[in-house]
Write a structure and sequence with these properties.
The complex is a heterodimer of chains A (about 240) and B (about 280).
Chain A lengths: L7 H34 L2 H32 L3 H34 L10 H22 L2 H6 L4 H21 L4 H33 L10 H10 L2
Chain B lengths: L1 H10 L3 H6 L5 E12 L2 E12 L3 E5 L6 H7 L10 E9 L2 E2 L7 H7 E4 L10 H11 L6 H14 L3 H4 L12 H14 L4 E5 L7 H14 L4 E5 L3 H7 L2 E7 L5 E8 H6 L4 H7 L5
Parallel strand pairs in B: 3-8, 3-9, 6-7, 7-8
Antiparallel strand pairs in B: 1-2, 1-4, 4-5, 9-10
Helix pairs in contact in B: 5-8, 6-8, 8-9
Classes of the chains: A mainly alpha (about 240), B alpha/beta (about 280).
């Protein structure tokens, strides 16, 4: 008989948790991608399906949290094991909220109803692509415990902030030119805002990765994204 | 201009920093402590300062020397014929291993509670009174009654035994016997209480009662505890010292620090490996 590994049960359970986080991450990616594509294509049926997907996301989030609590109660983890569980709980919550953003975008499409988009969507899908790419990489860095990658990813948020400010200015122009577009422009602004917030939450995931590996709990440098446009405008 | 000078003076004022800085008041400490059993070096070069009125846990794998270090704090190793100690154990500025120091006096000031409760085969009352008497207590019986009550209250045992104070100490449950032993130790008003796995023979509720008692006692006493139970060390102690074995089987102090740091983010990989169950 080979030597007994006293951590076999715990190691297996922790690995399963990391796998579950990746599963939840891919569910969220899929939901966001579908929500934005449905908005772009004005596909209401697809948007309604996002509501169902969100319920599955919430369920998975609770399952992950429950597993963490059980492991804390039964295994009394210490040091890095404990930090990993704390990070998983936090990241699962971040992902669940990102799922809510997907649902929010689906809701916007449904609220728009028969009304046409005031313009074809270009920057909003780009924001989604960039944000989802950041999310994908941040979860990869978390599972691999890669601190360097986790530190680098939040810098990409600047591009998304840039796009958000661009969308904002463009939509305001529409609203000024034709007040009948205000409601529809506002809806799109909400969608863009949801995607901007999604990228901010990726930064939180990166912070948790660094915490898990190093024990260092610190906010990564970031600008106050949504305000930067207004700050620049009203600074002087 | 004057205003600037005034501001500078305020900013450089040292008082604020002094208040925030944690002042360590040592209760006892070791300096290059080595303990041998015959030729075998059991503990090598331990330098450790124990803070006053705090609980310090000594943890580590079997054979790492933590109990040996604990016994070195009140010269209990003297009772082992082959044991030999070098280096210093400093208590109130004096090395307790100096020739002119009486080990009995040391043990009066630095008491010990053992793994298995070992009350005397006497009444509960006598378990407290006897130790006080041989340590020079010569007051009236009413004074002794007060001392017994006070001591048993201090060990959170009074309410459970006040109606059967003349019953044998051995009639109590394991957890109560251990609290009686703690009471017996504090009856002589020591500075430091050493505890060698005091809960390993107790059930979970009795264990939690001892841990609560330790918290209360740490307001007046310095406590050093050896425990194999890492959750206990994490729950009860302010500071933790992690000992491990080197290749030649000598025990060494590997890491020492605030318990919260040691159990959430230890600075050494070997500590992390031990507390997360990778060895030991």
């Amino acid at each position: 008989m080979s030597a007994i590994n006293p951590r076999e049960t715990l190691d297996r359970a922790l690995q399963e948790l990391l796998d579950e986080i990746l599963v939840l991450g891919s569910m969220v990616e899929e939901a966001v991608r579908t929500a934005v594509a449905a908005l772009k294509a004005r596909d209401l049926t697809a948007s309604e399906r996002i509501y169902e997907a969100d319920e599955l996301i919430n369920k998975k989030h609770f399952e992950i949290e429950d597993r963490c609590i059980t492991l804390i109660a039964t295994q009394q983890p210490m040091a890095k094991d404990l930090r990993l569980l704390a990070a998983v709980i936090e990241i699962s919550t971040e992902l669940e909220r990102m799922g809510d953003y997907a649902k929010g975008i689906a809701k916007i499409n449904i609220l728009l109803g028969d009304e046409p988009l005031i313009k074809p969507l270009i920057d909003i899908p780009r924001m989604a692509d960039l944000g989802l790419d950041m999310l994908h990489r941040s979860l990869g860095a978390f599972v691999a415990g890669d601190v360097e990658k986790a530190r680098a990813i939040p810098k990409d948020d600047d591009q998304i902030d840039g796009l958000y400010n661009q969308v904002y200015r463009e939509l305001v122009t529409y609203m000024i030119a034709d007040t009948s577009t205000i409601d529809r422009a506002n809806f799109l602004l909400w969608a863009a805002h949801n995607l901007e917030r999604l990228a901010d939450r990726v930064t939180n995931i990166c912070e948790r990765t660094i915490y898990m590996v190093t024990g260092e709990m610190r906010e990564l440098d970031r600008t106050d994204d949504e305000m930067s446009y207004f700050e620049k405008k009203y600074r002087d | 201009m004057n205003l600037d000078i005034h501001l500078d003076t305020q900013l450089n004022h040292p008082v604020i920093e002094e208040i925030e800085e944690h002042q360590i008041i040592p209760a006892i400490g070791t300096k290059s402590l080595n303990v041998f059993y015959d030729d075998f070096l059991a503990v090598r070069d331990v330098n450790l300062t124990i803070e006053k009125q705090k609980i310090t846990a000594l943890i580590g794998p079997s054979g790492c020397g933590k109990s040996t270090v604990l016994r070195a704090f009140n010269r209990m190793n003297d009772l082992i014929p082959v044991a030999r100690t070098t280096g210093e154990v400093l208590f109130h500025g004096q090395n307790i291993y100096n020739e002119n120091v009486d080990p009995v006096e040391v043990r009066k000031r630095i008491g010990m509670v053992f793994q298995k409760p070992n009350p005397f085969p006497k009444s509960i009352y006598e378990n407290i009174a006897w130790g006080a008497r041989i340590n020079g207590f010569s007051g009236k019986k009413s004074n002794m009654d007060d001392l017994v009550e006070q001591t048993l209250r201090g060990a959170a045992l009074w309410d459970e035994v006040k109606d059967k104070i003349q019953d044998s100490g051995l009639s109590l449950s394991g957890g109560q016997q251990q609290r009686l032993c703690i009471a017996r130790t504090i009856a002589v008003r020591p500075d430091i209480i050493l505890m060698d796995e005091p809960c390993s023979a107790l059930d979970p509720i009795s264990t939690l009662k001892i841990e609560e008692l330790m918290r209360d006692l740490s307001e007046d006493y310095t406590i050093i505890i050896v425990t194999h139970n890492m959750q206990q060390a994490a729950r009860v102690s302010d500071f933790t010292a992690f000992f491990t074995l080197t290749d030649d089987r000598a025990g060494v102090l590997m890491e020492f620090g605030p318990t919260t740091d040691l159990f959430t983010n230890p600075s050494k990989q070997v500590t992390e490996d031990y507390i997360t169950g990778r060895f030991g």
